[in-house]
Amino acid sequence: MPAHDLSIQLYTLREHIAEDLPSTLERVADIGYTQVEPYSFVARADEYAQALAKNNLSAPTAHAPLLSSDFGEVFAAASKLGISTVIDPFIPAEHWQDAESIRATAQKLNEASRRGAEYGIKVGYHNHDWEISSKINSTTALEYFASLLDPEVVLEIDTYWVAVGGADVLQLLEALAPRVIALHIKDGPKSKNHKEQVPVGSGSMPIDQIIQATQGMLHVVELDDFAGDIFQAVSASRAYLVAEKN
Questions:
Q1: What is the pLDDT tens value at each position of the chain, 246 positions in all?
Q2: CA neighbor of 140 nearest in space, from 150, 130, 132, 148
Q3: For residues 77, 80, 82 and 87, what is the CA-based torsion angle, rounded to 10 degrees?
Q4: Planar angle of CA 107, 152, 97, nearest 5 degrees
Q5: N or C: which end of the chain has fewer CB within 10 A?
């Protein structure tokens, strides 16, 4: 499969990264990943820069709490790491229950996008289940949110949390296109219990259909948690996706 189609969200390996970032990224590269999606990278930007270069890894996307951070600090660190899109990964559920709160969040993200453009960096948002289960004017809160965003702001759709939130993944992706530039690919029984997540291809998500419908898009493997060996899980996930995409 094309290397630019597959990445891994490093939050999946957060315990290992907290202990030893360089060796963790070395293991990621040994598994066969060529791209990663860092999280909370600002404080460790120099360390990330060294580890990425040493292991021939790139980071086209990354997560950072943009709306509660200093924009300049985030974008400067992203520039250092060659990150082209910074994605806010988490706005709590209480901010998605009414139109006024959603408009306020959209306004802040639009502001972040304008600042990011000064650095040549795009800005996006990553969903959980509550942006899907919450409804505004008979549509998902995420779709309402998307309608308020500047054209330059992108979305990274977490396909698993879309399903947990009660929506049809393929229909939502179609509704939000072409704003969607990346997907989080994860698997499991479509429950809120993170420990029940499993390697991609071994759960109940329609992974094959999702991949077929999103060829050429960045697919980011993620497990929020896992009951077994996490490195085995990310290795099995990559193996499945490589076979599926070929």
A1: 455 699 999 999 999 999 999 999 999 999 999 999 999 999 999 999 999 999 999 999 999 999 999 999 999 999 999 999 999 999 999 999 999 999 999 999 999 999 999 999 999 999 999 999 999 999 999 999 999 999 999 999 999 999 999 999 999 999 999 899 999 999 999 999 999 999 999 999 999 999 999 999 999 999 999 999 999 999 999 999 998 655
A2: 132
A3: 0
A4: 35
A5: C
Sequence-distant (6+) residues with CB within 8 A of 55 are 25, 26, 28, 29
CATH 3.20.20.150: does it fit domain 3-242? yes
Question: Which residues sit opposite 140 in a β-bridge?
Answer: 135
Domain boundaries in the chain? 3-242
